[in-house]
Task: structure prediction
Amino acid sequence: MHVTLRRVRFTAAVTAAATPRPRQVSDEPTRIDRIFGFVTTGAGMTVFVLLGLVGLFLLLRSREAFDVAGWSFFTRVEWRSDTSPPEIGVLGLLTGTVIVAAIAVVVAVPLGTCTALFITDYASARVRGPLTGLVDLLAAIPSLLYGIWGFFVFGAQVVPLSKFLTRHLGWIPIFATEEEAVFTGSMFIAGLVVSLMVLPIIAAVSREVFSQTPQGEKEAALALGGTRWGMIRQVVLPYGKGGIIGGSMLGLGRALGETIAVYMLLPQVPKLTIRILENGGATISGFIARRAGNDQEIPGLMAAGLVLFLLTLATNMLASVIISRSRSGAGIDA
Result:
């Protein structure tokens, strides 16, 4: 009887040991998790506080300019600080800033998107790595070098193209020029140079989104008889639409704030015009770099900097929202 009882207990123990027990999952964070959470939260709050302090500094330093100019600061084109009171306005600077950034984005978005598609869907594995590094290397080139290259080399090469555009497309207002116009130092040349500076951003964001396209959906499109371009048009591009838009807006924010290159390429004379092929134009950042040595203009330059700060901040925040909402399957079933 005792032997039988022992056998029963042994069998029960073996059965209990052999039965898999579900792992107990605890939601209680560990000490390392709490420390990591505090560090990341502190880093995020530090960036947020620094951003707020920059905006507050610009606002306080520009109050004098707003008190003198009033709302006309946003509607006046000319910038004359030698009068009493000063006649300063940001409209001409803002127009040049937007035009140069728009030209850069219009040129860089197709190039960046096509570059990302080639890297993810056409290039071989042996070429993909070096090509990715080469494109990303463009972002590491200082803007000063872009400005020097654009001023001494690239500008003269673009002049024949500018003459061709105004000769054959001069009936379009943006390509119209005055007779005997000077084609160097134009917003068109500045926009082309800036486009090379924002191309790596657009290409990098688009490439990351395209690379996350589900392989099964791509193979299914090819298995149904589609060509590679058909697969890209029906699967990859709809999937990465949010990434393309977000990357374009991030590039736009980068182009809006570019300083040194446009400082060297434009005469920094504020004017309200859409003629992009002839000499002239100014941007907020380039104008500030040109006139920052004059103490009498500091409040006005701070006010212009505040406008650029808010514009760039709004653009980048909107781009972040668009990128975060980009996900698989968007538009694929259409």
Q: What stands out?
A: The chain has 13 helices and no strands. Confidence is low (pLDDT under 50) at residues 328-334.
